[in-house]
Amino acid sequence: MESLENKIKRLEKTIFKQERELLHSRQMATLGTMASSLSHEIIQPLQILLATAQNCQRDIQREQVDTDIISDDLEQIVKTTKRIVHIVNRLHDLSHDSQPLLESINVNTTIENALMMFREQLKSHSISIEKHFTVPLPPIKADQVQLEQVFINLISNARDALEGCFDNGCITISTQTQNGEIQIRFEDNGVGIAPAQLPHILEPFVTTKKKGVGLGLYISQEIIHSYGGTITVNSQPNKGTAFFIKFPLATKE
Amino acid sequence: MSTGKILLVDDEPEIVKQFKRALKSEGYHVETAASGEEGWEKYQSSYFNVVITDWRMGKMNGLELARKIDTQHPVTKVIIITAFGKEFEETIDPHHYHAFDYLKKPVEMDNLLNKVKEAVQRQDGVVAALEDWVETHSDEAARPIMATLSQQREKQLWSAKDILEEIKGNTERGKQEYKKIIQLTIDLLTRGKIQ
Fold it and tell me: Which of A51, A80, A124 has the CB atom closest to B56's CB atom?
């Protein structure tokens, strides 16, 4: 018969293993929904790179080289390459299985990084972004990749909620400090969530969309809770949806 | 002989800059638009040999723009640039509109220029004939003549040069005259009579 002590040890090992698997599948879920939109994000800068480089080649072939123009071209190539590097790095982080690394994180920077993953899609859907960031913003203790995942999920949902609203689709994001916490408001003026679904929207496998599994908000909530934070949501059909997130400030150690 | 007038429609300014650069280096006159709506507006006021448009662009996407262009004559060749072949093929209605060609991103400059060259060569017959006439017989083309161009036998005063300008300006008169010229051709072929 297994001793109680051994049983506890065995169960602890199992829980630990399952936690790691859960973390991994959370990341995979986010990655999966992003895969198709990411290819579009990457193809645009690749087109800029190809066209710029080939134009330089043509200039050289036709012996019409203007060093000022070539200089601008090379600057554009470097800038655009860095855009792609950013996206690829994020892809790597999201797909890499690793233990969360807690660091001092600036929420404004995290939000900007997440927005960079959606630049082309937001543009092609005519969605504007309004940022009301408090600067400087005190840091919170979190894992950079996980925190970015939260905002990636929110932006992704907002983009879907604004599908078809080409006129004045807008995502408004504001950050501020109050009562020893960082408060974030993330709002869109899209289709909104039906009153019947609103109380359940943060639960797993709840979705209003045809595609996707309904884990995005649940994962975001889990991540936020793991840092001692909270998330609440308000919504009105055809008016929009707003998320309120709070995080305790990183205490000086 | 003009090399051609191109309308370039894309919401990414860096792409517009590079495509325009390549086209201009080949001697084309290039105008640009940053959205489907702006493209349509510009198209209304001038005839273009070719329209190059991105597919995915906000309110009026490239395909919608192409369909609208297709409703006007003379018909312009439209090249649609798409990101993903399969996704695009599933969207277009196989029975309705067909662009002159589809190019997949990222587009190579040589490829783009070859397609544009092809499209420009397949110029609208009426416009090409008028252009040729105006170029080779400039005095005659500028002289207004009395001519009856329709069954209704209304006489009108027009010069080839004026008509060409109206057609290229996409004006109401230009559109009407274009239709009459087409009808005239049909009449000649079917009745062999001209009053």
Answer: A124
